[in-house]
Write a structure and sequence with these properties.
Length: 407
């Protein structure tokens, strides 16, 4: 499978200028491709092919006075920008036809130099390399200093250079991993676990373990309020406002990185210790529209479940998801009697049928494990059929923290 390994970059002033030119040229080519497609649609003509766009927007455009500066950056960067536009249109049309999974996507929009995230991609034919001194040598940019947090397991197939809203630079390498080697890294175990995600505790396991919710955004709110108040008082368009905006972005990035690090550490530990993991398919988008929206976003359940999914696939573990309408909080895990819905403030209850006293979250975690077929009866027979293997849609971590956690 493919994974992304992200590392922090520290370009000097000249390299930052070269990267800014590359970001700008890639953005212009992408916008030109979108404009050409939209003009063809408005004229009710067939969309121009990729080869035609490459010739018109790159090769011929470099010969004109208006676009001569496209020759100052690597041609591979411009070609990859065209491919991004093609991919965006393919996803849009697949979404319209209903052949693409997930929420519906809109048509490609024009990119702006004010976008929070800027990126360019170099493939193998761009002749980029890693020098003996550990620097990333990029064409027409030069050797850029890299903060290596770990060694790359294999030679990367491409690298994407990213600038985020906080002004930080990252290099994201695409790595093809060996499935046999990945599965051999994990110790043999026959343990299975059920997980109940929540807000009071981030996760409660079926073995009774409770994992506290760090609440990274809540803990950073005081600092964020101060930074945002200072930003609102700065004059629009001034340099002081740009500095204040960067301060706010860095505060948000710090909370995001801490949350992602927590998710990576917890998901790796669970995958390492358990052969089978059962989770509930939560309606995060719906919960994010309630009064609990800030707490739901702060928990980051979707990100955590995505990490569990690709790590289970990578290391030969089993991840089972149960339906979101399964009454895990209403059913007694001892006798199996459904005791009815309970308000959220009820954290402990007694079964009216057998008299067992249950912790709400622990009882739900046991029921999640049972509903997924990972629990067994007293006779040693599975309660339900075996768990479904993890889907093969998640190909790697999509975040870009200060270091990287692709394990």
């Amino acid at each position: 499978m493919q994974l992304r390994y992200a590392f922090r970059l520290y370009p000097d002033a000249a390299q930052q200028s070269a990267l800014a030119r590359a970001f700008g040229c890639a953005r212009v080519v992408f916008n030109d491709a979108v404009r050409a497609r939209e003009e063809a649609r408005a004229a009710k003509q067939p969309f121009p092919k990729a080869a035609e766009l490459s010739k018109r927007l790159i090769t011929e455009a470099k010969q004109t006075v208006e676009r001569s500066w496209l020759g100052e950056v690597s041609a591979v960067v411009l070609q990859q920008s065209l491919r991004d536009a093609e991919s965006a249109y393919r996803n849009f049309f697949a979404s319209l036809k209903g052949t693409r999974k997930g929420p519906r996507t809109g048509p490609p929009r024009f990119k702006s130099r004010k976008d929070a995230r800027q990126s360019i991609r170099f493939t193998a034919n761009a002749r980029w390399s890693i020098t003996d001194s550990g620097r990333l040598n990029l064409p027409k940019i030069g050797p850029v200093k890299v903060k290596w947090s770990r060694t790359l397991p294999t030679a990367p197939t491409s690298v994407t250079v990213i600038k985020d809203a906080a002004g930080r630079y990252f290099a994201s390498f695409v790595i093809d991993t060996d499935p046999a080697a990945d599965q051999a890294r994990m110790p043999d175990t026959d343990r299975t676990i059920g997980i109940d995600l929540g807000l009071t505790h981030f996760a409660v396991l079926s073995d009774g373990t409770k994992i506290d919710s760090p609440r990274f955004l809540r803990r950073a709110e005081k600092k964020l309020k101060k930074a945002q108040r200072e930003l609102s008082r700065k004059q629009k368009g001034s340099k002081n406002r740009a500095k204040a905006r960067l301060k706010v972005a860095r505060a948000h990035a710090k909370a995001t990185d801490a949350r992602r690090e927590f998710h990576h550490q917890l998901s790796t530990r669970l995958i390492c210790e358990n052969q089978g993991i059962a989770v509930e398919d939560l309606a995060v988008a719906g919960l994010a529209r309630t009064r609990l929206a800030k707490s739901v976003h702060d928990a980051g359940w979707s990100s955590f479940l995505s990490m569990l999914e690709y790590k289970a696939q990578r290391h030969g573990r089993t991840l089972a998801r149960i339906g979101r309408f399964e009454p895990t909080s209403q059913t007694c895990s001892t006798c199996g009697v459904k005791d009815g819905p309970k308000p959220l403030n009820v954290r402990e209850w007694t079964c009216t049928a057998c008299g067992a006293v249950h912790d709400r979250d622990h009882n739900a975690a046991i029921n999640v494990k049972t509903a997924a077929g990972l629990a067994v009866t007293a006779c040693g027979v599975p309660v339900r059929p075996g768990a479904i293997p993890a889907q093969r849609e998640e190909t790697g971590s999509h975040g870009f923290p200060t270091g990287n956690r692709a394990t």
